[in-house]
Amino acid sequence: MATIGIFGANGRMGRALITVAKEQQLNLTAATVRAGSELIGVDAGELAGVGKCDVALKQTNQNSVSLADVWVDFTMPEPMLAHLELAVTAKKAMVIGVTGLTDAQYAKVQQASQHIPIVWAPNMSVGVNLLLHLVQTAAKVMGQTADIEIIEAHHRFKKDAPSGTAMAIGTSIAKALDRNLADVAVYGREGFTGEREQQTIGFATVRGGDIIGDHTALFADLGERLEITHKASSRNTFAQGALRAAQWLQNKPAGLYTMQQVLGLADLS
Ligand SMILES: NC(=O)C1=CN([C@@H]2O[C@H](COP(=O)(O)OP(=O)(O)OC[C@H]3O[C@@H](n4cnc5c(N)ncnc54)[C@H](OP(=O)(O)O)[C@@H]3O)[C@@H](O)[C@H]2O)C=CC1
Ligand SMILES: O=C(O)C1=N[C@H](C(=O)O)C[C@H](O)C1
């Protein structure tokens, strides 16, 4: 069983990861927080509210990174890239769930994957990864005439928009229709917009309260519409996926892997 480390242990996902690692009796050997944090020395399980797990929170640095084989990162783009440098130096694998990366930031993840094995995925749930296939079938059947809109809703604390998952849904649909997402994406509408252009793929973002993560792909034609929806009701679902990816990554060669590969969905048509 791989030894697992968690960067950003105090985040919403950091705490969910500690919770699931304890529930599943995984080999959690390290959990870190940012330099100078008052939480250094606190037990990770107590931080997550699940009782002691005998892992004291450490400051993120090269020493603490040596304490686990596979590191899981759900922080933010800039700190994640700093963590990635530590992991490359220490030759440790990484599971990355951070969204809102610029193209340049994603390119750095790609470069790092020449040196260490990495899973990056904007959504680690089984349901969303299945949905990425279902929307391709819908797009092939309805996409030439139906209007396609992707609607996502998240909690008030989320910093990036549209969500990484919404972007992945858009990318899947565009690929199935042989369209380039950058050419056809419309991010929100305001004012006298004129009639909808049929080839476009629209995105709508809702932010409010404690919504964990809802995504709908809408195929709206004249006379009927199809909606394919996923609703996450617990962050533990994402944590379970990430920890499954961490086990899967153990002893893999350097490379950039997807959640589709982890879940065995990569070959679904
Ligand atoms: N792929 C997936 O399945 C999922 C992806 N996500 C993505 O995961 C990311 C995190 O989400 P969430 O847990 O809600 O976010 P939180 O804001 O709750 O957690 C962010 C974490 O990053 C740390 N952090 C932020 N800035 C810095 C910094 N400059 N230096 C060091 N540490 C820093 C925070 O530390 P501190 O506590 O000290 O502020 C905190 O631990 C987002 O990108 C989100 O979209 C979320 C859920 C599922
Ligand atoms: O920030 C979140 O919370 C989530 N972010 C991911 C995204 O941007 O797609 C995944 C999930 O929906 C929760």
TrEMBL record:
Q: Which UniProt keywords apply?
A: Amino-acid biosynthesis, Cytoplasm, Diaminopimelate biosynthesis, Lysine biosynthesis, NAD, NADP, Oxidoreductase
Where, by residue number, is the active site? 154 (proton donor/acceptor), 158 (proton donor)
Pathway of action:
Amino-acid biosynthesis; L-lysine biosynthesis via DAP pathway; (S)-tetrahydrodipicolinate from L-aspartate: step 4/4
Q: Which CDD domains match?
A: DHDPR_N
What is a single molecular function from GO for this protein? Answer: 4-hydroxy-tetrahydrodipicolinate reductase
The residues the record assigns to binding NADP(+) are: 34
**Where is this chain's protein located in or outside the cell?**
Cytoplasm
Pinpoint the Dihydrodipicolinate reductase N-terminal domain residues. 4-124
Q: Which residues does the UniProt record annotate as the domain Dihydrodipicolinate reductase C-terminal?
A: 127-263
Q: Which residues take part in binding (S)-2,3,4,5-tetrahydrodipicolinate?
A: 155, 164-165
> Which Enzyme Commission numbers does its entry carry?
1.17.1.8
Which PANTHER family does the UniProt entry name for this protein? 4-HYDROXY-TETRAHYDRODIPICOLINATE REDUCTASE 1, CHLOROPLASTIC-RELATED, DIHYDRODIPICOLINATE REDUCTASE
Subunit details? Homotetramer.
Would you identify the family this protein belongs to, as annotated?
A: Belongs to the DapB family.
Q: What is this protein called?
A: 4-hydroxy-tetrahydrodipicolinate reductase
